[in-house]
Amino acid sequence: MNRNWQSAVVRRLVLLLGACLLLGLVTDQVTLCLLLGISGYLVWTLIQMFRLGHWLEASEFSEQEPPSSHGLWGVIFDNIYRLQRRQQKSRRRLQAVIDRVQASTGALSDAIVMVNSQGCIEWWNPAAEQLLGFRNPDDQGQHITNLIRDPRFIRYFEQNAYSEPLELSSPVIENIRLQYSITLYGTNNRLVVVRNITRLHQLEVMRKDFVANVSHELRTPLTVITGYLETMQDGLALMPDKAPPVWKRALTQMLTQAERMQNIISDLLTLSRLETSDNQVDQGAVNVHELLDTVVNDAMAYSDGKHRVKLECPDSACLTGNREELRSAFSNLVYNAVKYTPEGGDIKVRWLENNYGATLQVKDNGIGIDPQHLPRLTERFYRVDKGRHSQTGGTGLGLAIVKHVLLRHNAVLDVSSKPGKGSTFSCRFPAVRRECG
């Protein structure tokens, strides 16, 4: 309260008490006059408080003018009235913004659902009623997992980590594929955006089927061609007359390219199998030390003594998962380190464990990777150096296979690298995967 009004209140109270005291001295009833004066002041104050309370209750539903008064209470009434008017204007502006937001989101074909920190639904747009089957007002305030009951969505919603969207079938419309994206805002509130990706899903299924079918169809004729080329190469050695050098060179190059095509087809079939099969991995206890020892020995044979490959892994290391898939992923990482590390380089394969899970770390001191390429490394056929495949013989599918294997094992791939300094590939498995009992 402003000091001027404080001093005015004090002056009025002093004048009242002074008048009561003077009247008491004149009538020889000082105590009675002071008591009557103070009582009258309290009664007047209570009346003003009651008027204020009635006005506040009435003005909550209408813009009623404040009651007339004077002095301190007149100032209080006026100030509260001005505050009310400002709040009403702000409320109207805010409501107008909310109405525009709701109107714009209501026009979207994507479903928008606002969920509070307890997981209860606060608002949704009309598209959510079509794609998710929400009903207004019956579902207002319901927990979202009571309406979308797919266990995969429940796990996704409760994990509080939404870097990747989730794809599921629509709970109300058959043959409709939906993509769920969740964004955290405020105090653990969530904004759920649901898109209809049926067309994209159909195209992706067609692509996967095409790749799988073509790979299968190419495997048989390529095997026949490779067989005849090997037969012709063996026949050159049995020829009594020396064959022209160009024949031997041509056969060698054809066999090399045929072998490379077989590797591509094999990787395509592996990738197709990982993509088209469900996400349920055949569970089993995998002896990680034995698996990594086999992978490292194969890598040393592939290196032919040109690199130093070192393994650090405890004998008791264990992981729950599919052994063949894990071997494929680990082999691709170690083989890549051999391919892209110059002769005489060091490659270290480490298995690390802590309370949060386990990590496979493949570190080399090779040529390294420029940071701009890191986000796209796991794309199929993506190459950092377009001309390097002729030297390394890679298919460009190895890291894509690693990505899909890790996804099926609830793991993630982290890559850190500096050009000319080497690279470190880390496969991080959750703690639940270490439970091999």
Automatic annotation (TrEMBL):
<protein>
    <recommendedName>
        <fullName>Phosphate regulon sensor protein PhoR</fullName>
        <ecNumber>2.7.13.3</ecNumber>
    </recommendedName>
</protein>
<dbReference type="InterPro" id="IPR036097">
    <property type="entry name" value="HisK_dim/P_sf"/>
</dbReference>
<keyword id="KW-0812">Transmembrane</keyword>
<keyword id="KW-1133">Transmembrane helix</keyword>
<dbReference type="InterPro" id="IPR021766">
    <property type="entry name" value="PhoR_N"/>
</dbReference>
<dbReference type="InterPro" id="IPR035965">
    <property type="entry name" value="PAS-like_dom_sf"/>
</dbReference>
<dbReference type="InterPro" id="IPR036890">
    <property type="entry name" value="HATPase_C_sf"/>
</dbReference>
<keyword id="KW-0067">ATP-binding</keyword>
<keyword id="KW-0418">Kinase</keyword>
<dbReference type="InterPro" id="IPR004358">
    <property type="entry name" value="Sig_transdc_His_kin-like_C"/>
</dbReference>
<keyword id="KW-0597">Phosphoprotein</keyword>
<comment type="function">
    <text>Member of the two-component regulatory system PhoR/PhoB involved in the phosphate regulon genes expression. PhoR may function as a membrane-associated protein kinase that phosphorylates PhoB in response to environmental signals.</text>
</comment>
<keyword id="KW-0808">Transferase</keyword>
<dbReference type="InterPro" id="IPR000014">
    <property type="entry name" value="PAS"/>
</dbReference>
<dbReference type="InterPro" id="IPR005467">
    <property type="entry name" value="His_kinase_dom"/>
</dbReference>
<keyword id="KW-0592">Phosphate transport</keyword>
<feature type="domain" description="Histidine kinase">
    <location>
        <begin position="213"/>
        <end position="433"/>
    </location>
</feature>
<keyword id="KW-0547">Nucleotide-binding</keyword>
<dbReference type="Pfam" id="PF02518">
    <property type="entry name" value="HATPase_c"/>
</dbReference>
<keyword id="KW-0813">Transport</keyword>
<dbReference type="InterPro" id="IPR050351">
    <property type="entry name" value="BphY/WalK/GraS-like"/>
</dbReference>
<dbReference type="GO" id="GO:0016301">
    <property type="term" value="F:kinase activity"/>
</dbReference>
<dbReference type="Pfam" id="PF11808">
    <property type="entry name" value="PhoR"/>
</dbReference>
<dbReference type="InterPro" id="IPR014310">
    <property type="entry name" value="Sig_transdc_His_kinase_PhoR"/>
</dbReference>
<dbReference type="InterPro" id="IPR003661">
    <property type="entry name" value="HisK_dim/P_dom"/>
</dbReference>
<keyword id="KW-1003">Cell membrane</keyword>
<feature type="domain" description="PAS">
    <location>
        <begin position="90"/>
        <end position="148"/>
    </location>
</feature>
<dbReference type="Pfam" id="PF00989">
    <property type="entry name" value="PAS"/>
</dbReference>
<dbReference type="InterPro" id="IPR003594">
    <property type="entry name" value="HATPase_dom"/>
</dbReference>
<keyword id="KW-0472">Membrane</keyword>
<dbReference type="InterPro" id="IPR013767">
    <property type="entry name" value="PAS_fold"/>
</dbReference>
<keyword id="KW-0902">Two-component regulatory system</keyword>
<dbReference type="Pfam" id="PF00512">
    <property type="entry name" value="HisKA"/>
</dbReference>
